[in-house]
């Protein structure tokens, strides 16, 4: 029997309250975590799972939507705690997660240093140091666009570049659920593009949202915002229209 669990994790970051929603997919043989939060979030993940009467020791796989710090920060710790689990990511993301290539987010932060005031530069340098502290970990299996994985009712890999070039979302076939990652977020009940300042290619991001209209989505899960309430297709169309007018 296929089950879906939303691990809403509340925390403070830079003085503000935030929530992320990693997802657990489960069937008779697999327990799959999608994204894993910031560094040192392993206890928070374990606690969130425990509240739903789940033990992360049963994890078999982790699928990473992209290599931002809040999605892979605890990946190495998870692998140490549960060495049997398989880490899965999009083919172009694997070198960044493994530390073989410099994080695109780190490159972006470093490229802005010369344009900042002294105070801004100090904050940026702290952010750069934090990004450099993310522990790399090898990816066990890479996936490609439209690849179908046979677990938990069937999972289709949906390449949704824009926020990052190798960003993926997951379409769970049996439940018609889209796990969006950071392809879209929910702000004040509306769908938005995830923090435009951190989206590396806005045109690609908009194109990815347009491609999502091809899917029969009955439930949309955003990493930032959780479960979307409303007409999903209409909300996607309105978001596309908003950015087409810019």
From TrEMBL:
Residues 19-224 form the Metallo-beta-lactamase domain. InterPro entries: Metallo-B-lactamas, NDM-1-like, RibonucZ/Hydroxyglut_hydro. Keywords: Hydrolase. Transmembrane segments: none annotated. SUPFAM superfamilies: Metallo-hydrolase/oxidoreductase. GO terms for molecular function: hydrolase activity. It comes from the Bacteria. It holds the Pfam family Lactamase_B. SMART domains: Lactamase_B. It catalyses: 3',5'-cyclic UMP + H2O = UMP + H(+); 3',5'-cyclic CMP + H2O = CMP + H(+). Counteracts the endogenous Pycsar antiviral defense system. Phosphodiesterase that enables metal-dependent hydrolysis of host cyclic nucleotide Pycsar defense signals such as cCMP and cUMP. This is MBL fold metallo-hydrolase. It comes from Brevibacillus fortis.
């Amino acid at each position: 029997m296929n089950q879906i669990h939303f691990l809403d994790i509340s925390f403070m970051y830079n003085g503000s309250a935030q929530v992320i929603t990693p997802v657990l997919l489960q069937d008779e043989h697999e327990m799959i975590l999608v994204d894993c939060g910031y560094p040192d979030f392993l206890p928070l993940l374990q606690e969130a799972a425990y509240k739903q009467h789940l033990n992360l020791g049963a994890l078999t796989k982790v699928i990473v939507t992209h290599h931002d710090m809040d999605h892979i920060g605890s990946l190495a710790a998870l692998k140490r705690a549960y060495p049997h689990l398989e880490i899965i990511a999009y083919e172009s993301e694997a070198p960044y997660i493994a530390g073989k290539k410099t994080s695109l987010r780190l490159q972006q932060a470093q490229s802005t240093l010369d344009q900042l005031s002294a105070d801004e530069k100090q904050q940026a340098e702290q952010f750069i140091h934090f990004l450099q502290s993310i522990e790399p970990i090898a990816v066990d299996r890479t996936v490609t666009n439209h690849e179908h994985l046979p677990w938990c009712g069937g999972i289709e890999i949906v390449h949704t570049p824009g926020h990052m070039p190798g960003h993926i979302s997951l379409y769970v076939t049996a439940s018609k659920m889209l796990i969006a990652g950071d392809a879209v977020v929910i702000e004040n009940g509306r769908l938005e593009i995830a923090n435009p300042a951190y989206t590396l290619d806005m045109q690609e991001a908009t194109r990815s949202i347009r491609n999502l209209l091809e899917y029969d989505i009955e439930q949309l899960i955003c990493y930032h915002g959780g479960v979307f309430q409303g007409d999903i297709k209409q909300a996607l169309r309105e978001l596309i229209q908003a950015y087409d007018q810019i």
